[in-house]
Amino acid sequence: MTIQWFPGHMTRAKRQIQEKLKLIDIAIELLDARIPLSSRNPMVDEILGGKPRLIVLNKSDLADPRVTEQWIDYFKYEGHETVAVDSSTGTRVGDIPVKAKEILQEKIDRQLAKGMNPRAVRGLIVGIPNVGKSTLINRLAGRNIAITGDKPGVTKGQQWIKTTFDMDLLDTPGILWPKFEDELVGYRLAMTGAIREQILNVEDIAFFAVRELAERYWPALQERFKLDKAPTDPSESDEIVRIMEDIGRRRGCLVSGGQVDLEKASGIILRELRSGNLGRITLEAPFPAAAGRPGE
Ligand code: GDP
Q1: Which ligand 1 atom minimizes the distance to the CA of 86?
Q2: What Pfam families does the entry give (predicted)?
Q3: Who lines ligand 1 at CB under 6 A?
Q4: Could you tell me the sign of the dihedral formed by the alpha carbons of 188, 192, 193, 197, in that order?
Q5: Overall pTM surpassing 0.80 (yes/no)
């Protein structure tokens, strides 16, 4: 589902989430472990306010584990507990209710001291489209639930989903809009599959992807496509196009006259990047020495 995020939609999405916050104990902010900055809503602190929050780095199966650890430290420094999960297989999703309880422990203790019966923790999953909200809800619930109505502006009755853990979830996750202000953010969202290709040109997305990979993960790119010539300067457009053409030739993407079909090659590059065939890749890191550059 593609959502057009007009200012009115953003206002309504924000309001809807704030209505839901009244019903819950903790917000679960879902980010893509490969692009924790680009997959973060720019107003998330304002929207969630002082609500207890757990950050979940999803799709960590596709991300560089070394950099994921750095992100966990970084968010801790920012004051947020963070867990890294793979919702597609369920790996470590059980850490979410455990950590949520830890975060809420004082509140739970206060309720116990007043003689109240502690109930299951109530959570709301929030995140940008395609970050894996529905997949995570299904994993936590241990069954497939048709998750609908999560369009900004569409209201429907709230229901609690019982999970297999000591945690209930609101059945409609909070949909946040991605960052738009920066071209690089758009391309990173597209590379990882968060934005549909119809919006951006496939060859342009692949160009950005190859450039980022050539800068940070050249050995992975070289190994996957059996490339022999490393770029002397990955910031040079000509060099990136040459790598794309080499990949195209390797994969038999040729048109008559022996020219490389760049569109076809681009499709292959993006498919293999997104499915993890190039290895575990993170495009943004919190500290300069790691995979990405902060703020980019
Ligand atoms: P939503 O729009 O936030 O509800 O996102 P979905 O739950 O529909 O997930 C978007 C895509 O990401 C789907 O193709 C999922 O299979 C995939 N996905 C979700 N979580 C993970 C994960 O942890 N690892 C991997 N590899 N894929 C995931």
Answers
A1: 23
A2: MMR_HSR1
A3: 58-59, 61-62, 86-88, 127, 129-135
A4: positive
A5: yes
